[in-house]
Amino acid sequence: MLLRRELLAALGAAGALPAGAALAQGGTQGASWPTRPIQVVVPFPPGGQADVTARPVSAALERVFRQAMPVVNRPGAGGIVGTASVARAAPDGYTALMALSSHAMLPESERLQGRTPAYTVEQFAPIARFTADPTVLLVPAGSPWKTLADFVADAKRRPGVITYGSAGNYSTLHVAMAMLTGAANLDLLHVPFQGGGPALTALLSGTLDSLASGPGPASVHVKEGKLRALANWGSQRIPGFEDVPTFKELGYADVEFYIWTGLFLPVATPSEIQERLRQASLQVCETDEALKRALDTAGSPIAYLDGPAFVNFFNEDSARLVRAVQRIGKVD
């Protein structure tokens, strides 16, 4: 598939640089990196899954590099604006991207809309995957829906009335819900937001009826009794959400979806810098107890992958999600 060939070629091109060429490309930065703060761009507003992961990861990496790693939220167009800004950034190791599984879906959505993509996946080098969480279907605790069966039955009685939010058209949250509406033959009203954080805020305020969310941002609100989780998109029940069944358990065999978070650099970043960041990422995931506690508390335990394993996962997952975007088709 084209996506796989493009990504492997890009990773191979970056990894093929010999040490001398990498240092020549990065100048003294290759030998001494980092000598100044490293900006981590989250292409969504605060409060969503990428943001919840980026902040403790950046704090842990700061302890390794002894350099600041500020998280910069740069939302817009469902993640396209911030991601494209990293694609255009200098490949010097001082601008990184914390992306979601929508990373490969967004260029395909641009093509469906008849636009030239603002970025393509071959512009990025995958460094490390930190989390991989199935989404959960959330509704306000005060809603009449106690179970998924209640929700589905009401949606069938009132087609086009029950709303669901997302982080924008073709975002991870949109695709997850599209999988459900297709499998259950539901007509729900899609309300796109600038990111998962604002959509979750709308759900909490009662201005939105339902939302697919990563378990991290949702966990505290479910525990506090503000939201109710009806089902999850994973292959098994989620720690901390043990009483929430999977869609597969409830008879929807093809409804499976994960929100993962991964760190990327511009593909032309010297290979030595890529490897240093990759090794530091592995180090903090294995040894930094504060990072582990933060992600566990957020409901998104570490699910680390790097190198070829992350590339292979990215290719397989992205190919499936691109097909899902193509099934959604053009959104007016």
From TrEMBL:
Keywords: Signal. It comes from the Bacteria. It holds the Pfam family TctC. The keyword Magnesium does not apply. The keyword ATP-binding does not apply. Residues 1-24 form the signal peptide. Belongs to the UPF0065 (bug) family. This is Tripartite tricarboxylate transporter substrate binding protein.
